[in-house]
């Protein structure tokens, strides 16, 4: 290692987390000259992350300018069509209504059950200046919004309780009533217990403040987008009447004035993010053609309004379009309990559409932007990297897809918006964090040169710290499948003349996700401690094609483990890794695979399992993924052997590896009791085990103090079991 690194003066430290700014969203102005981005940073004393909006000059002539200073979250910036205003969502304290109409229409109070404000739409006038003006005062907050083409109205997706529901919600939040549950999907991580309140679309007159509801019925409508003439909204809705037992989301349109409704998809898809074409004749959306199969890729589907079906009554069309709805699984199992349990809606028709991304065999991630009437731009996952993709409709057939920027596999795009012939991207690299960059649409199509980086939010960290470079590796697993991974190299590590270093395998979650090149504080911190950090895009990772992803459906464990261990062997063969100092960790699915690993190999000196799972049958009904389990394994009482076979608990008798288990007390994706089951089993067997529970935490790392605490504990655990001496973790003497 370099002299400065050995001395410790340039190594990344835990306290550096508070110095980092991270771009999370970007919205480009209609003329393509400016962008507003959401930037997250940390308030150390308040112990919370905050996200504010910044204005960016995409020509590079001016430094980014901070627009908001709220000690909370300002997000989802949307430019008005005239390029003068920016609307956004924020849960800041409310302001007085500036018009009588707004005051009358506001149903009163817009705070959560904890007395905290809910997200409302606020608006900045970039030409006139001044503070942000509050545009909505809805008690349940705003779930989504979109500007009308003339900029005079907003389409809003609002939870809309009736009088009885509103009374129940108030009593519930006041602690005067219990949760009364009769829904199958009765809770969701980070949201809480579900109720029966539906989300409906409303239109707000921005100047006058009047609000009018435009959809209704016993189902929710979300994700509104305007037609170019401002007369219609396209939206999503599951109208099977049993939305908790399937993933069907259809694309619909509603005429703002007449209320006339049309259906564009036929009940055989799960759609996301619909958007009108510039001529108003088509709608593009992300579509999964196997809605209940979590491993199937999303594609961009183009739907023609000429094929739309008129719907007489949106509120009364529940259940129409399917021969059966599914839901209840009979007890007579038969020979295949998995197929027997796949009781999903059977659509009477298939959706007529064109799918220009069909031949690419890559997941389309969105957003979708129409460049003109026949060309679109979106993002896609491609071999452990996120890239721009150009789609073209052709006179015959589905159309064509073309992978565009970037071609440098050492960077990745983590957000995008396009307008005015320009593309604003959030460009990520391991040593540069996330920055806003810009390029012309024509430039991207020609693959002509790099994008222009327009921000430098990460510079304060880069100036005085040595960061880990990444190396991409490729190797073959024991099934003959080529697997890729990334390796974060400790600063000063020479891959050409290596001295074997301790190896920490960091397994990504999902499993339908992937490790892409980008700054991740924890990976950099572990590399700064002196570890090689291996990130394997194992089978199931979604950016390597549908067959690669689907190969683990209903059979978690052996393939992913083989891929991870093949990566370990590859680094050992290269002489990079010290065979006596191997360690493993992971969060969520990474925690699950860590639990699987220690039951199937004794090669790791220590392990850290974060928010993982242990016994899948015990998870059914206590987590928020019942439909996923049902599709993969059937029902646990009908397929007990299948659930046990692939649960990490099946390897309990083989576990010898010391393991630190970390969990969130309110994690409903991988519930706390899963970690407790694992902890008790290993304690009873005499395995060196410790359980850390974070109060109030869900399936995420939220508070900065928790992020620092967990990294400190992980580092100390590894150090205590033969890893690197922790140079700044609590208790290290730093």
Architecture overview:
With 734 residues, the chain is of the alpha+beta class. The protein has a domain of 259 residues: Rossmann fold. The chain is 17% helix and 31% strand. The strands form 10 sheets. The protein has an 8-stranded mixed β-sheet, sandwiched between helices. Strands 15-16-17-18-22 form a 5-stranded antiparallel β-sheet, with no helix packed on it. A 4-stranded antiparallel β-sheet has the order 1-2-3-4, with no helix packed on it. Strand 39, helix 14 and strand 40 form a beta-alpha-beta unit. The longest helix is centred in the last third of the chain and has 17 residues. The radius of gyration is 26 Å and the shape is globular.
**What's the average pLDDT?**
93
The CATH superfamily of the domain at 462-720 appears as: Alpha/Beta hydrolase fold, catalytic domain
- From the coordinates shown, what is the CATH architecture of the domain at 462-720? 3-Layer(aba) Sandwich
Give the helix level as a range of percent: 10-25%
Beta-strand proportion: 25-35%
Strands, count: 40
């Amino acid at each position: 290692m370099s002299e400065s690194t050995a001395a410790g003066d340039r190594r990344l430290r835990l306290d550096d987390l508070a110095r980092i700014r991270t771009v999370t969203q970007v919205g480009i102005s209609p003329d393509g000259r400016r962008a507003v981005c959401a930037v997250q940073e940390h308030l150390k004393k308040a112990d919370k992350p905050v996200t504010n909006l910044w204005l960016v000059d995409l020509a590079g002539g001016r430094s980014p300018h901070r627009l908001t200073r709220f000690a909370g979250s300002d997000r989802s910036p949307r430019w008005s069509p005239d390029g003068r205003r920016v609307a956004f969502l924020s849960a800041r304290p409310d302001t007085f209504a500036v018009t009588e109409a707004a005051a009358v229409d506001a149903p009163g109070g817009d705070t959560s059950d904890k007395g905290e404000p809910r997200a409302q739409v606020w608006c900045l006038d970039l030409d006139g200046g001044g503070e942000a003006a509050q545009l909505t005062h809805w008690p349940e907050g705003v779930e989504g919004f979109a500007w009308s083409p003339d900029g005079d109205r907003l389409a809003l997706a609002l939870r809309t309780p009736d009088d009885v529901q509103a009374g129940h919600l108030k009593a519930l939040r006041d602690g005067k009533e219990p949760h009364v549950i009769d829904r199958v999907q009765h809770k969701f991580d980070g949201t809480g217990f579900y109720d029966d309140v539906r989300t409906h679309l409303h239109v707000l007159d921005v100047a006058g403040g009047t609000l009018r509801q435009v959809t209704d019925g016993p189902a929710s409508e979300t994700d509104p987008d305007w037609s170019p003439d401002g007369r219609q909204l396209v939206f999503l809705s599951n109208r099977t009447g049993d939305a908790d037992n399937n993933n069907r989301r259809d694309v619909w349109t509603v005429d703002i004035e007449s209320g006339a409704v049309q259906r564009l998809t036929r009940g055989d898809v799960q759609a996301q993010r619909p958007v009108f074409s510039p001529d108003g004749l088509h709608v593009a959306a992300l579509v999964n053609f196997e809605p209940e199969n979590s491993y199937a890729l999303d594609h961009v589907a183009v739907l023609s309004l000429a094929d739309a079906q008129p719907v007489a009554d949106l509120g009364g069309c529940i259940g129409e379009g399917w021969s059966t709805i599914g839901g209840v699984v009979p007890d007579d199992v038969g020979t295949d309990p998995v197929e027997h349990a796949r009781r999903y809606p059977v659509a009477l028709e298939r959706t007529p559409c064109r799918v220009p991304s069909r031949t690419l065999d890559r997941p389309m991630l969105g957003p979708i932007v129409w460049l003109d009437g026949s060309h679109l731009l979106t993002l896609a996952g491609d071999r452990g990297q996120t890239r721009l993709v150009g789609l073209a409709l052709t006179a015959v057939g589905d159309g064509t897809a073309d992978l565009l920027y970037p071609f440098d596999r050492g960077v990745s795009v983590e957000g995008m918006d396009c307008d005015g012939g320009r593309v604003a991207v959030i460009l990520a690299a391991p040593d540069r964090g996330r920055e806003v960059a810009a390029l012309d649409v024509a430039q991207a199509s020609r693959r002509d040169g790099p994008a222009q980086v327009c921000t430098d939010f990460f510079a304060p960290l880069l100036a005085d710290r040595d960061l880990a470079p990444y190396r991409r590796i490729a190797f073959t697993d024991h099934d003959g499948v080529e697997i890729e991974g990334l390796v974060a190299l400790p600063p000063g590590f020479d891959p050409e003349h290596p001295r074997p270093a301790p190896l920490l395998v960091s397994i990504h979650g999902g499993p339908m996700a992937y490790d892409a090149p980008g700054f991740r504080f924890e990976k950099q911190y572990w590399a700064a401690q002196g570890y090689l950090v291996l990130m394997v895009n194992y089978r199931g990772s979604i950016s390597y094609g549908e067959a690669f992803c689907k190969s683990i459906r209903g059979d978690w464990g052996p393939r992913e483990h083989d891929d991870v261990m093949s990566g370990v062997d590859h680094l050992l063969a290269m002489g990079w890794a010290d065979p006596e100092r191997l360690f493993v960790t992971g969060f969520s699915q990474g925690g699950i695979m860590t639990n699987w690993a220690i039951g199937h190999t004794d090669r790791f000196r220590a392990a850290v399992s974060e928010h993982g799972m242990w016994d899948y049958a015990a998870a059914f009904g206590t987590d928020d993924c019942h439909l996923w389990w049902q599709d993969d394994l059937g029902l646990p009482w009908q397929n007990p052997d299948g659930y046990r076979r692939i649960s990490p608990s099946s390897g309990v008798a083989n576990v010898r590896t010391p393991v630190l288990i970390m969990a969130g007390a309110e994690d409903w994706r991988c519930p706390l009791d899963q970690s407790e089951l694992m902890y008790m089993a290993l304690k009873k067997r005499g395995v060196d085990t410790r359980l850390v529970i974070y109060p109030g935490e869900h399936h995420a790392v939220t508070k900065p103090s928790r992020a620092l605490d967990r990294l400190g504990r992980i580092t100390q655990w590894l150090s205590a079991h033969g890893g690197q001496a922790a140079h700044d973790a609590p208790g290290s003497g730093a």
